[in-house]
Amino acid sequence: MDHSREERAASYFQCTVRERAVFEAGIKLAAVYHQFIGAPVSASNVESLERAIEHGVMVQPFVESVSVHIHKESLRRKRNEYDYQSLTGDMLDVSVSIKIEEVRVRGRMRYVEDIKYPLMYIESIEQA
After folding, report:
1. What is the 3-state secondary structure (H, E, C) of 25-74?
2. Is there a domain that residue 10 lies in?
3. Residue 84 has pLDDT above 90, yes or no
């Protein structure tokens, strides 16, 4: 990103670089959830859907890496030619690494069985 443009953008954030990196991780995970839940998914397109989500996240600012896994064991066979399955939150396991300046944040979204919820959370924060 253009250095002067980033300085102008950064001036809007009334927080630390660390807090901004956490914010950015949350934005990326929420975007995955809200853009892709409901997408048609099957054994024949699961890998291409995983890659499409990853490529969509990678073009966003500050993304260092992203990994998307859709639990294939959640997929079922089509019952007829009109039947299809939609992506749900419990099928997703997403990890994203955000780097701003010298701060690296690893965020994750996955279904946590004991709370029965696709939780978005911060796995780690470190100085790069």
Report:
1. HHHHHHHHHHHHCCCEECCCCHHHHHHHHHHHHHCCCCEEEEEEEECHHH
2. no
3. no
